[in-house]
Amino acid sequence: MAEAPSLFASVYALVAQIPPGFVASYGQLARMLGAPRAARQVGWAMRCCPDELPWQRVIREDGTIAGGEYAPLRRAMLEAEGVPFTQDGRVAIDRCRWQPGEAGLV
DNA sequence: TACGTGACTTTGG
DNA sequence: CCCAAAGCCACGT
């Protein structure tokens, strides 16, 4: 135990804790993991796309959604969860950004 | 061990 | 608004 969990694994655990209706950015997750520069690795982990991992809640700092051709699909999932969107078609991350102490702290 | 790759972020034009 | 380049770190081969 107490092994050094690869950033890869840490991301999964963190994303899995994001409550519905909230979203987080790659850089923010990386920052929580203690690697403010590992935003790319976070996205890389998402690339695995595990079905157990609601990576749709993980978007860019700008509020835009990544995932290539799946991006528009994830956007619909976020809308179904109650995530607010802007007229620009981007996530209103300013209103639904997951923060420590939010519903996830339950 | 080294190189290549990438679903990011930031700054500048 | 759009585009481009640089910096960054970890994983796979």
From TrEMBL:
It comes from the Bacteria. Residues 9-83 form the Methylated-DNA-[protein]-cysteine S-methyltransferase DNA binding domain. Keywords: DNA damage. PANTHER family: 6-O-METHYLGUANINE DNA METHYLTRANSFERASE, ALKYLTRANSFERASE-LIKE PROTEIN 1. This is MGMT family protein.
